[in-house]
Design goal:
- The protein is mostly helical.
- It contains 6 helices and no strands.
- The chain is globular and about 35 Å long.
- The two termini are 15 Å apart.
């Protein structure tokens, strides 16, 4: 339950951590607040631009908004960081291709 997860994340003291911000963004996006979740991803990437999990989730958020152009930018960046065979690349590519199992 993503709303319960957000309650737990609210108790974390150091919210200026890339991984914490990524997970808050993920739970926020999955709760239906896609734009707000994307905001958390941008904050996380400001701290750690090479976080491939954040980039994957940001790309998935863009897919949800129908912004495949922006999702492609994240896919390209993931490829530069970990290659076209890493899980994050494959997952985002599947989301962009319309694979029903990605969400």
């Amino acid at each position: 339950d993503y709303k319960d997860a957000l309650t737990v994340f609210a108790a974390i003291r150091d919210k200026e951590d890339s991984d914490v911000l990524t997970m808050i963004g993920y739970a926020t996006r999955k709760s239906g607040a896609v734009d707000e979740g994307i905001g958390y991803y941008h904050r996380a990437l400001a701290l750690n631009p090479d976080n491939v999990n954040t980039r994957e989730y940001l790309g998935e958020g863009y897919v949800m908004l129908g912004r495949l152009d922006l999702a492609q930018g994240q896919l390209d960046r993931i490829e530069a960081i970990c290659g076209a065979q890493c899980d994050q690349y494959l997952d985002l590519a599947a989301a962009m291709a319309g694979d029903e199992n990605w969400n």
